[in-house]
């Protein structure tokens, strides 16, 4: 790293994991293409495909085909995985981030 201005503009850490970002993007648009998710999240398409597989295997998503495209459904009642939050549904986080703020 050269310590240039571009490095200073990039955050060193964020609150949400890549898995959370992908899940949020899908919650916002269940018909979104994974290449669009990858672009928005700053990840490769292959990485996003792996994350979607993880989310499916973990019981957070269900993938179905609509013609030539995939459509995703968030599993209602899915719980956080970490023991510190395991008594909370992910729906609360998704609602907080995907719903417009109340005016």
Describe the structure concisely for a colleague.
This protein has 103 residues and is α+β, with helices and mostly antiparallel strands. It has helices spanning 5-9, 18-28, 34-41, 45-57, 90-98, and strands spanning 61-66, 69-74.
Low-pLDDT runs: none
Beta-strand fraction estimate: 5-15%
* Largest sheet, strands/sense/barrel: 2 strands, antiparallel
Strand order of the largest sheet: 1-2
Indicate the radius of gyration in whole angstroms: 15 Å
General shape: globular
| First and last CA, distance | 44 Å
Instruction: Work out the helix count.
Output: 5
Q: Say how many strands there are.
A: 2
Instruction: Kindly report the average pLDDT value.
Output: 90
Strand pairing plus helix content: what structural class? alpha+beta
H/E element sequence? HHHHEEH
User: Helical amount among residues, as a percent range?
Assistant: 40-55%
What does this structure look like?
- By secondary structure, the protein is an alpha+beta fold.
- The chain contains 5 helices and 2 strands; from the N terminus they run H-H-H-H-E-E-H.
- The chain has helices spanning 5-9, 18-28, 34-41, 45-57, 90-98; strands at residues 61-66, 69-74.
- Strands 1-2 form a two-stranded antiparallel sheet.
- Strand 1 (61-66) and strand 2 form a beta hairpin.
- The longest helix is centred in the middle third of the chain and has 13 residues, at 45-57.
- The protein starts with a helix and ends in a 5-residue tail after the last helix.
